[in-house]
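Worked example (supplementary).
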Amino acid sequence: MLTQRQVRLAWLLVLPTLLVVVLVAGYPLAQVFYWSFFKADIAFVEPPEFVGLENYVFLLQDPDFRQALWNTLKFTLISVSLETILGLAIALVIHSNFRGRGLVRAAILIPWAIPTVVSAKMWQWMLHDVYGVINVLGVKLGLLSQKVAFLARPELILPSIIAVDVWKTTPFMALLLLAGLQLIPEELYEAASIDGATRWQQFWTITLPLLTPALVVALIFRTLDALRVFDVIFVMSGANPATRSLAVYNRQTLIDFQDLGYGSAISVAILALIFAFVLLYMRTLGREALK
Amino acid sequence: MKALWRVANRGLFYLLVVFIVVYSVFPFYWAVISSFKPSDALFSPDPSFLPLPFTLEHYKNVFLQANFGRNLLNSLIVAGGATLLSLVLGVLAAYALGRLPFPPKNAVLYIVLAMTMFPQISVLGGLFMLLRQTGLFNTHLGLILTYLLFTLPFTVWVLVGYFRGLPRELEEAAYVDGATPLQTLLRVMLPLTGPGLVTTGLLAFIAAWNEYLFALTFTVGDAVKTVPPAIASFGGATPFEIPWGSIMAASVVVTVPLVVLVLIFQGRIVAGLTAGAVKG
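After joint prediction of all chains, the assembly is encoded as:
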């Protein structure tokens, strides 16, 4: 009796959330799919015209799309790798016992708390070609032979943007990995020490294998985030073709060029790309999390 | 020799710690001191590492010249609204998903999980049209509703965990006393999830406060625009006119409250982040 009432109540309680899901995810997504088969502008100045797969065919031949895809993949690969290595190093440092550990943990949360737009602006100022502190310090310390226009030289823009992303998101990585490190039982290290294993051997035989699940979670999580990167790139270099990511190109097509049809096709392509990674995510984590 | 080696090792370790702290904090420190330097000191080839000479000129400019006060208020309304709505809807759904017998529970959880993976960009066009059709384009409510795309799933996931962690006996005792499930939720369970509400609320608020893409696309003009797009578009027409002092002042104003909150709730945020990341 109670059970039946409980089931009804459960539905009632979940309903508002499901409505929101339909409203802000399901319906807009259906629209995007639908319009990707049309030649249409976002204000409907011209009547929309059904064109079938034409947008997708164009997408496959669009050099701008290919460039954006390449930029995104490059950004993702480099920034996620750097964040993983640096994050692991930081996690190992704050995992060991020392005075002021709490303070360090607080300090590394600061970049994470700062809005991406703000951190992009902060770094733009620090990377300023004449007055930026990086140039000033670099020259003073002899690391740079002369001041560098980091955000004007085509070959330096993407690396600069990656540096900002690494600065901002490494703490997040470090915290995820720290949580993983804390799950490894201390006795394993004690036993290994008694057996005469060096710290380095302990790292390779105990830490790394046991940290792998946490590492995979963090990696996939960051990868998904990096694949949809928008803020840091758009703020630091606008829609510059040399750096624009898929998301930046997609927004430009939809909003600036008002091209609803082609923009929607790009959206679908991005979704497909991320869906491939999500499948991986669900496989490795979904079941675990639902237990 | 061995003692010397240990001392050197220890020293190297602390050097590493110092390096990590400086690397994490210095850019923010630089933004803060830049916001207090007069413009001519800002544009000096040999800048001071202290906020000297000191001025509040940029803060005055930010609040007097630009509509920054309005932007701040908009951010408060939008982030606060999205957080509140997420918490209310999230508590209801999470209680059902965490504690009630409910056949398609896993399916619903998967749907919510899938939503957290959603790239915002892939629904941008659809949401843009939806907001225009419903007259919610360039309104606070429009932004709040679209922000639920990322705040609600996260809230539900973390709160489900909290509800599951509560002992069953509490609920049973309430039922024995004749409470309905809804009363049980509101009177018995909800008070116990206080810490969970604070954590998820804070994380949702930070996410909404920092959001840029939707705010940039779904608002025009300063009446509704939140802080991130306002800061991004601050400044002159050419690179020579960029008012770095004012940008840094605005950046400090929007960041300091967040940094303070994060430092206060440090432990909980770390727990919430890891839980949220593992679950979605």
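Two points are worth noting when inspecting this output. The beta strands of chain A are 38-39, 49-50. Chain A has a mean pLDDT of 89.
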